[in-house]
Write a structure and sequence with these properties.
By secondary structure, the chain is an alpha+beta fold. It has a single domain (25-116), classed as Arc Repressor Mutant, subunit A, CATH 1.10.10.10. The protein contains five helices and four strands, in the order ββαααβαβα. The chain has helices at 26-38, 41-47, 52-65, 77-80, 87-116, and strands at residues 16-18, 21-24, 71-74, 82-85. The strands form two sheets. Strands 1-2 form a two-stranded antiparallel sheet. Strands 3-4 form a two-stranded antiparallel ribbon. It is elongated, with a radius of gyration of 19 Å. The two termini are 16 Å apart.
């Protein structure tokens, strides 16, 4: 009895490093998108089921990795505080998503050839 082989799945995951320092990747991109939607680091963290402290540390690490802030923060607590994606943050996020799309397109083109080499 012959069974049909499982389909091949390739999933790209881009991570950007500057030297050995991790600068940007899928989690930071998702956090930026959630901050853009919610206007809050706290609400973005909740939406991602992550602690506020972890989200804050990711935002701080993005500040260290880029020449300009990716997130503009406003102090003031729940009623007056908030966060928005900076123009640089929007550029970084758009470029990252463009690179993801390009890598996914390359994988779609290459998968049939790769599949033919499998057992």
């Amino acid at each position: 009895m012959s069974t049909k082989p499982s389909p091949l799945t390739l999933v790209p995951s881009l991570r950007v490093f500057r030297g050995r320092a991790f600068v940007f990747g899928p989690g930071k991109a998702a956090l930026l998108e959630h901050i853009g939607r919610t206007g809050s680091i706290s609400e973005a963290a909740k939406a991602m089921e992550m602690s506020y402290m972890k989200a804050w540390k990711l935002v701080k690490s993005m500040e260290r990795g880029f020449a300009e802030p990716l997130v503009h923060k406003t102090r003031g607590g729940y009623a007056r505080g908030g966060a928005t994606i900076s123009p640089t943050g929007r550029k970084v996020l758009a470029l990252y998503r463009t690179m993801e799309s390009a890598s996914q397109a390359a994988i779609r083109r290459s998968t049939p050839r790769f599949t033919r080499l499998l057992k």
